[in-house]
Amino acid sequence: MTAKHSPHTAETSSRGGSIRETLRRLYHGRTPGAIRFQLAVIVIDIAILAFFIATPLLQETASFLWLDYSVAALLAADIAARLFASSDIARQLKQPTVWVDIFILLTLLFPATLANLGFLRILRLWSLSRTGFLWRPLGRYGLGEWRETVHAVINLLTFLFIITGFVYTFFFRSAGGLTAYIDALYFTVATVTTTGFGDIVLPGVWGKLTAIVTMIIGISLFVRLAQSIFRPAKVFFPCPQCALQRHDPDAVHCKACGHVLKIPDEGV
């Protein structure tokens, strides 16, 4: 027996498909309208990141919860829209960037319960930099060739703010205020650069271990940043045969498998 679908069901399905197609064009399209939408989302993301950085200073204000839940609503809408626009939702849910965004959403929905993990919200900066969503509109302005350098800078900034948030939360929070947060940032930068002025030192064994881990990872990130600046420029163009991502701008064949490449002149 052939299943019958009511007009209402067909209309709902059609409307859902239309919404999905619209979201797909906005998030993944290259039309002027889609680029404007993507740039607007990037601006909103930057504002959200500013809120994450300032969270330690805003937690005691009367408007903090209102701001927190407003950001949670924006982030939830963005996650849902990206998933709905995806052609394979199950595969999308396996991406580390989606896990990071969901974790950040949980810290926003339960700010009191997960208060000590709030400093990890800055990972949103890392997840944003790893999506093509950021580079698609920026590539139109010739910024695609700086992708690897920007990745290195963002990795370093994300690490700096994570350590600053960690140090503030577990070592300086009792003092509170802007001065305590600046002290945490000052300690982090002095430790990462191995300057080690010594005027601010974390107490106890855990303080020493925090300084050790910060120095080791910080040095590695600085080396990575230097490599991305001074190494020969590469373009991001996946090889259709072996999926190698980086190639010389004038490459004709993939250096890994020899497949013929057709890299656009603009290198994005």
Automatic annotation (TrEMBL):
Annotated ranges, domain Potassium channel: 158-229
Keyword Ion transport: yes
Keyword annotations of the record: Ion channel, Ion transport, Membrane, Transmembrane, Transmembrane helix, Transport
A single MF term (Gene Ontology): voltage-gated potassium channel activity
Pfam family, one: Ion_trans_2
Any Gene Ontology CC annotation: voltage-gated potassium channel complex
Protein's recorded name: Voltage-gated potassium channel
Compartment(s): Membrane
GO biological process: action potential
Domain of life: Bacteria
